[in-house]
């Protein structure tokens, strides 16, 4: 089991895989794009999927959808795609629903509650997309809307709130150079920068000493660009022989000494000040319980969050490296113990089970406490702010042209606009822009959309299916930072642009 | 909007006589481009993660003929993304299986699989590459990529390159501690050398007696738990068990090489490394983690492959546009907050680059009985070197320079040079640029022929920039070597290669200051 998923476990580990395995994804519209997106979730082993589509397989589906064959012609599209996708991975169970997306269905919150994520892959039903987003809003089930026309692709994610503990930062750079605790201070005090074996001193210790000297002269950490440059200069003067790797590292990473350990990033500050912390209840997700513990921890520890306890690669003797690693790890362990105590205090104070803590998730939370993310989405289709920026970002035109096309198809029961519909489409664009003036590059895109007459190009569908699959995995596993929250793709110029609405 | 003007709407009669499945392609690409694509023959090198996606995309793009080359066989860990393969296909050829899997969907496309190493000149000589209009690379290793790139440059065909990658191997220190199987005697001996332990913790030999008593109580299931960090006795258990397995195989198979996917060798390396770590007080790791370090595993998922295969096949449309080079793009995943990917036009050639800074040609000889001296004479005559040249064959085999003339009277055959060998020719006066010549044997010819190329003069450059070229070569070698594990007994010392690299690195530093 783990062998088959080996290459992806290296990205999201067993925790992520387990969430994926227990997920249930719903696809509305067995289009080529939707099928490709689902293929990218079936292969890595999402637990279940359901396809809702009442249409029949046509020859035009066969032209573009790799997962439909001649013998599927005329049969229900949802059933045919499920049959072919089921073959990809015996661990996954697919279901086909030969029903149409009625107004009643999109409002049926009971039906939707069985799913972990919903993908709607269609160029029409815009109103239904918005209603569904509304239905799913308080259930916090993510909805991804994707559509493709000719060389163009569009994607929008609707979700009320999404929290991320494991955002997978490039590195965990919290080394407390400005705030060494007792053991770390002792180790840095014990090294002599002039000693014979000075080339074995880890640069973190060199920086602690250098910063000490700097503070004894300037009274504070370097903070302005000028001070930082001066500090860097002072680091390069510590050692005349520049070929010593560790001293060179100290110069390269001198900026780490101007990091203020007591400052937590803005995203974390926002999270720990969220009003939800004042109303913790029996149903509050564990994430927020941990956030509350983090808030208390920071207050109790002179504004310092738990230490990740991860050392960077650095030049050092093995002995010094291991000793330093031990000091960082021991401190991190100490922090985890204190943090765990706070979690259990909070849980008992709100009458929840404090005896069976998930120690794994606590460890992961502590390690990532500077890299927590909270995303809050919106249900609005377009932001007036974006319209004002139309002149500066050419791809915004594509975004607006897509919305106009979706609106057109909604009012014409799914009929694809033809070249003769140019004026009507432009008038929809004018309504969106709230202006008569349509820039040339926008009307050019509208012309290209009309020229393609709803053509699906497999290549573009497969590409958009890749992006949807990727974002779906991030949303389901709660790892990595999902795209916020709209994206268009221009396959003619091979470029993308995304915006948060 | 470059393409819009290039794609006129299709004529009605044409649409009617074409297969129904291509209506949408003709509508969006136009009749002319569609025709060009359906008359094109392309080569896809690699049928792995990107390869499977790309084969599907190229097929549905309507290419006339697709050849798929791959030397690999299917492994269980491929199935999470290589969607053309099933459990029942494990151990079968990737190229053959991929082509068989898409047979149902192929429409008018002709498909041909090639199970083999693309760098094998007897199966894939340069003349074989000539039949293709476009070459797509979907490879996982740099060596083959560089090779296919050179072939494409020799015959001047468009190459579309794609690749995805995940984490880097960052655990050098650990590999250094991977040592041979002696955990007691050698350690005792090492521990006696006091000078070694003045500045570091003395290793503690394994108390084998103490642990061996506990071994019988351990369940064999521990071997399959690759997520757990094994205890010392569990490591010892796995070590002994894997040694037994390897011993049995040695009798029938002879010398065994480490392979991350060979569970017996992996178990041995993991257990040995962990025991050694334990002795030296280094953190131990799970088999899952060590597999990534020792096997140089790159994480891979379906989604990124789908995205970048999409780009790759889309880029191929540029080949049929008015300005193939100008319209082509380099595409990367993006770190910009408002972008998903970033793209830029192809970069201009770099005269220091081994791939694009070199002129290429072909030497054709009637037979391999020709003496090297004759080729040498022709080279001097044809390209107007002022004095002499040096000739290197393959990666680094020097066969001629002005004070090494012994080979001139030997035949190519005696020098074990054959069709597909690549000659790297440099001017001894350092005046003309280096060139690369691909050797082809053509029995119908009577003389040696050399492609007409005018070799440019070397740009005047400072000495330092020459050093940078050698650094690039070093780095290249380091990358080629990465599958090898060096068994080194002394963790604190640096490997000679590292020291050498550091020296060149600091040289470069100085030269750029």
From TrEMBL, chain A:
<protein>
    <recommendedName>
        <fullName>NEDD8-activating enzyme E1 regulatory subunit</fullName>
    </recommendedName>
</protein>
<dbReference type="InterPro" id="IPR035985">
    <property type="entry name" value="Ubiquitin-activating_enz"/>
</dbReference>
<comment type="function">
    <text>Regulatory subunit of the dimeric UBA3-ULA1 E1 enzyme.</text>
</comment>
<dbReference type="InterPro" id="IPR030667">
    <property type="entry name" value="APP-BP1"/>
</dbReference>
<dbReference type="GO" id="GO:0005737">
    <property type="term" value="C:cytoplasm"/>
</dbReference>
<keyword id="KW-0833">Ubl conjugation pathway</keyword>
<dbReference type="InterPro" id="IPR000594">
    <property type="entry name" value="ThiF_NAD_FAD-bd"/>
</dbReference>
<dbReference type="Pfam" id="PF00899">
    <property type="entry name" value="ThiF"/>
</dbReference>
<dbReference type="GO" id="GO:0019781">
    <property type="term" value="F:NEDD8 activating enzyme activity"/>
</dbReference>
<comment type="pathway">
    <text>Protein modification; protein neddylation.</text>
</comment>
<feature type="domain" description="THIF-type NAD/FAD binding fold">
    <location>
        <begin position="5"/>
        <end position="489"/>
    </location>
</feature>
<keyword id="KW-0963">Cytoplasm</keyword>
<dbReference type="GO" id="GO:0045116">
    <property type="term" value="P:protein neddylation"/>
</dbReference>
<dbReference type="InterPro" id="IPR045886">
    <property type="entry name" value="ThiF/MoeB/HesA"/>
</dbReference>
<comment type="similarity">
    <text>Belongs to the ubiquitin-activating E1 family. ULA1 subfamily.</text>
</comment>
Automatic annotation (TrEMBL), chain B:
<comment type="subunit">
    <text>Heterodimer.</text>
</comment>
<feature type="binding site">
    <location>
        <begin position="78"/>
        <end position="81"/>
    </location>
    <ligand>
        <name>ATP</name>
    </ligand>
</feature>
<dbReference type="InterPro" id="IPR000594">
    <property type="entry name" value="ThiF_NAD_FAD-bd"/>
</dbReference>
<feature type="domain" description="Ubiquitin-activating enzyme SCCH">
    <location>
        <begin position="223"/>
        <end position="291"/>
    </location>
</feature>
<feature type="binding site">
    <location>
        <position position="353"/>
    </location>
    <ligand>
        <name>Zn(2+)</name>
    </ligand>
</feature>
<dbReference type="GO" id="GO:0005524">
    <property type="term" value="F:ATP binding"/>
</dbReference>
<feature type="binding site">
    <location>
        <begin position="140"/>
        <end position="145"/>
    </location>
    <ligand>
        <name>ATP</name>
    </ligand>
</feature>
<comment type="similarity">
    <text>Belongs to the ubiquitin-activating E1 family.</text>
</comment>
<keyword id="KW-0963">Cytoplasm</keyword>
<keyword id="KW-0547">Nucleotide-binding</keyword>
<protein>
    <recommendedName>
        <fullName>Ubiquitin-activating enzyme E1-like</fullName>
    </recommendedName>
</protein>
<keyword id="KW-0067">ATP-binding</keyword>
<comment type="pathway">
    <text>Protein modification; protein sumoylation.</text>
</comment>
<dbReference type="GO" id="GO:0046872">
    <property type="term" value="F:metal ion binding"/>
</dbReference>
<feature type="binding site">
    <location>
        <begin position="46"/>
        <end position="51"/>
    </location>
    <ligand>
        <name>ATP</name>
    </ligand>
</feature>
<dbReference type="InterPro" id="IPR035985">
    <property type="entry name" value="Ubiquitin-activating_enz"/>
</dbReference>
<feature type="binding site">
    <location>
        <position position="94"/>
    </location>
    <ligand>
        <name>ATP</name>
    </ligand>
</feature>
<dbReference type="Pfam" id="PF10585">
    <property type="entry name" value="UBA_E1_SCCH"/>
</dbReference>
<dbReference type="GO" id="GO:0019948">
    <property type="term" value="F:SUMO activating enzyme activity"/>
</dbReference>
<feature type="binding site">
    <location>
        <position position="70"/>
    </location>
    <ligand>
        <name>ATP</name>
    </ligand>
</feature>
<dbReference type="Pfam" id="PF00899">
    <property type="entry name" value="ThiF"/>
</dbReference>
<dbReference type="InterPro" id="IPR045886">
    <property type="entry name" value="ThiF/MoeB/HesA"/>
</dbReference>
């Amino acid at each position: 089991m783990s062998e088959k998923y080996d290459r992806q476990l290296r990205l999201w580990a067993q925790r992520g895989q387990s969430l994926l395995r227990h997920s249930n994804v719903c696809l509305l519209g067995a289009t080529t794009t939707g099928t490709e997106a689902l293929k990218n979730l079936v292969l890595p082993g999402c637990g279940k999927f359901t396809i809702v589509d009442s249409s029949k397989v046509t020859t035009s589906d066969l032209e573009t959808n790799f997962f439909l064959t001649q013998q599927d012609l005329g049969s229900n599209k949802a059933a045919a795609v499920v049959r072919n996708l089921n073959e990809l991975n015996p661990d996954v169970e697919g279901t086909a629903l030969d029903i149409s997306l009625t107004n009643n269905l999109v409002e049926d919150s009971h039906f939707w509650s069985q799913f972990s994520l919903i993908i709607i892959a269609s160029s029409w039903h815009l109103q239904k997309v918005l209603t569904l987003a509304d239905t799913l809003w308080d259930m916090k089930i993510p909805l991804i809307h994707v559509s493709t026309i000719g060389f163009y692709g569009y994607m929008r994610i609707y979700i009320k709130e999404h929290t991320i503990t494991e955002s997978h930062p490039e590195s965990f750079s919290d080394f407390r150079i400005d705030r060494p605790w007792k053991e770390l201070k002792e180790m840095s005090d014990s090294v002599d920068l002039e000693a014979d074996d000075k080339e074995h001193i880890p640069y973190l210790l060199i920086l602690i000493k250098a910063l000490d000297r700097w503070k004894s002269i300037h009274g504070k950490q370097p903070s302005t660009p000028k001070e930082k440059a001066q500090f860097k200069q002072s680091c390069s003067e510590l050692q005349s022989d520049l070929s010593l790797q560790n001293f060179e590292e100290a110069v390269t990473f001198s900026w780490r000494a101007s990091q203020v350990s007591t400052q937590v990033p803005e995203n974390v500050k926002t999270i720990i000040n969220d009003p939800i912390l004042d109303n913790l209840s029996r149903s509050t997700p564990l994430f927020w319980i941990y956030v509350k513990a983090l808030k208390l921890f920071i207050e109790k520890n002179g504004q310092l969050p738990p230490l990740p306890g991860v050392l960077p690669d650095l030049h050092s003797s093995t002995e010094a490296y291991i000793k330093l690693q031990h000091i960082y790890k021991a401190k991190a362990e100490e922090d985890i113990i204190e943090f765990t105590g706070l979690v259990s205090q909070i849980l008992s104070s709100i009458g929840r089970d404090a005896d069976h803590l998930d120690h794994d998730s606590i460890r992961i939370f502590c390690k990532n406490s500077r890299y927590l993310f909270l995303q809050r989405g919106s249900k609005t289709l377009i932001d007036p702010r974006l319209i004002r920026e139309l002149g500066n970002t050419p791809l915004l035109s594509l975004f607006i042209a897509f919305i106009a096309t979706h609106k057109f198809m909604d009012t014409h029961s799914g009929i694809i606009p033809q070249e003769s519909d140019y004026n009507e489409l432009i008038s929809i664009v004018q309504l969106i822009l709230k202006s008569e003036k349509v820039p040339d590059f926008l009307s050019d895109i509208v012309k290209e959309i009309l020229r393609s007459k709803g053509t699906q190009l497999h290549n573009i569908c497969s590409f958009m299916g890749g992006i949807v699959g990727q974002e779906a995995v991030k949303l389901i596993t709660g790892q990595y930072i999902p795209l916020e929250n709209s994206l268009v793709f221009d396959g003619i110029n091979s470029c993308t642009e995304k915006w948060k609405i | 909007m470059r393409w819009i003007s290039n794609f006129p709407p299709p004529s009605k009669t044409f649409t009617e006589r074409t297969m129904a499945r291509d209506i949408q392609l003709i509508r969006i690409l136009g009749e002319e481009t569609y025709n060009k694509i359906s008359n094109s023959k392309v080569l896809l090198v690699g049928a792995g993660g990107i390869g499977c996606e790309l084969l599907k995309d190229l097929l549905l793009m309507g290419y006339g003929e697709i050849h798929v080359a791959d030397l690999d066989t299917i492994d269980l860990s491929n199935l999470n993304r290589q969607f053309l393969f099933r459990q029942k296909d494990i151990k079968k050829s990737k190229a053959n299986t991929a082509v068989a899997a898409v047979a149902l969907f192929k429409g008018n496309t002709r498909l041909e699989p090639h199970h083999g190493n693309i760098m094998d000149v007897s199966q894939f000589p340069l003349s074989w590459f000539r039949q293709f209009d476009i070459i797509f690379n979907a490879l996982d290793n740099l060596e083959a990529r560089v090779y296919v790139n050179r072939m494409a440059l020799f015959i001047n065909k468009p190459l579309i390159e794609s690749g995805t990658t995940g984490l880097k191997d960052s655990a050098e220190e650990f590999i250094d501690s991977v040592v041979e199987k002696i955990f007691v005697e050698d350690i005792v001996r090492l521990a006696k050398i006091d000078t070694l332990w003045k500045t570091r913790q003395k290793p503690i030999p394994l108390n084998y007696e103490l642990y061996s008593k506990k071994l019988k109580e351990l369940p064999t299931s521990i071997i399959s738990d690759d997520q757990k960090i094994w205890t010392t006795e569990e490591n010892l258990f796995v070590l002994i068990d894997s040694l037994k397995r390897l011993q049995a195989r040695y009798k029938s198979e002879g010398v065994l090489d480490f392979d991350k996917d060979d569970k017996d060798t992996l178990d041995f390396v993991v257990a040995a490394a962990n025991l050694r770590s334990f002795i030296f007080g280094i953190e131990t790791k799970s088999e899952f983690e060590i597999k990534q370090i020792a096997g140089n595993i790159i994480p891979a998922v379906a989604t990124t492959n789908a995205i970048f295969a999409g780009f790759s096949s889309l880029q191929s449309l540029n080949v049929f546009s008015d300005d193939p080079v100008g319209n082509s793009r380099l595409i990367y995943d993006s770190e910009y907050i408002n972008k998903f990917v970033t793209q830029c036009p192809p970069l201009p050639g770099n005269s220091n680059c081994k791939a694009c800074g070199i002129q290429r040609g072909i030497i054709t000889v009637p037979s391999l009985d020709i003496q090297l001296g004759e080729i040498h004479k022709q080279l001097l005559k044809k390209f107007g070197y002022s004095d002499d040249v040096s000739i290197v064959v393959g990666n680094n085999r020097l066969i001629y320079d002005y004070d090494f003339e012994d080979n001139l009277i030997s035949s190519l055959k005696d020098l074990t040079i054959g069709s597909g060998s690549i000659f790297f020719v440099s001017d001894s006066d350092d005046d003309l640029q280096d060139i690369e010549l691909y050797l082809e044997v053509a029995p119908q010819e009577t003389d040696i022929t050399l492609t007409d190329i005018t070799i440019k003069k070397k740009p005047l450059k400072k000495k330092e920039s020459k050093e940078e070229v050698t650094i690039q070569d070093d780095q290249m070698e380091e990358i080629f070597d990465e599958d090898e594990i060096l068994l080194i007994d002394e963790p604190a010392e640096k490997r000679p290669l590292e020291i050498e690299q550091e020296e060149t690195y600091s040289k470069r530093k100085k030269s750029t200051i």
